[in-house]
Amino acid sequence: MDIRGGVVIVTGSATGVGAACAKLLASKGCNVVINYTKSEAEARETQAACEALGVETLLVQADVANDVDCRRMAQAAIDRWGRIDGLINNAGTTKFVNHTDLEGLTAEDFLRIYAVNVVGAYQMTRAVAPQMKAQGRGAIVNISSIAGVMGIGSSIAYAASKGALNTMTLSLARALGPEIRVNAICPGFIQGRWLRGGLGDAAYEAALAQQERTTPLRRAGTPEDMAQAAVWFIEGADLVTGELLIVDAGAHLGAAPLIAR
């Protein structure tokens, strides 16, 4: 897909991976819908960075857990440009709770996390699908997590939500073809304030050092690394749908096995 002059909606794009996706798309000449819920000042910074690259943007405050907001965001893109070529479902939330602390999560925690991480992605997909179908093409990328593959991460509720997002990716890839491709990336550790704020400085620095010491690539991921993978699914993977791509510097491989003599 040639995305120059195209239109991609990136949910949760004020900061982090979403902002990196928006900027990378803009650098390739793609117009971007920048979405935020609360972080307006940072969203405007992302918007300014994208527009400095010569593209057009829309800034939309919307909560993906609200279906009316999702449909409004999609319609805003259609009203402005008359098309939607891509959607990156990046908006997400969690609660940091040790997996052994079963009393640390309530039913309300699960429902809130699912409302954004799973239902929000579904609602956004539903909102853009008619336009993509009418155009005859489109690409959707869900920003999932290695947590949904390995049952690890910030909390059991978060891991479960990302597992659900992964299976939903497969279902939607079947349902929306041949016009629309649906894929997901599953990041591991991502450097930035989201993990630092959830873990605390000491635990964050320890996890970062472990990533840089033990992964096969001896690196810890950045938002820009994740953006490269997500945008590739939109512009460089015309024959790929229903894939879950782990992007974690090889951390999921574990330690090298001993070789028996």
Automatic annotation (TrEMBL):
GO molecular function: oxidoreductase activity
One Pfam family linked to the record: adh_short_C2
UniProt KW Protein biosynthesis keyword: no
InterPro entries, sorted: KR_dom, NAD(P)-bd_dom_sf, Sc_DH/Rdtase_CS, SDR_fam
Matching Gene3D superfamilies: NAD(P)-binding Rossmann-like Domain
SUPFAM superfamilies given in the database record: NAD(P)-binding Rossmann-fold domains
Family of this protein: Belongs to the short-chain dehydrogenases/reductases (SDR) family.
Name listed for the protein in its UniProt record: 3-oxoacyl-[acyl-carrier protein] reductase
Organism annotation: Tepidiforma thermophila (strain KCTC 52669 / CGMCC 1.13589 / G233)
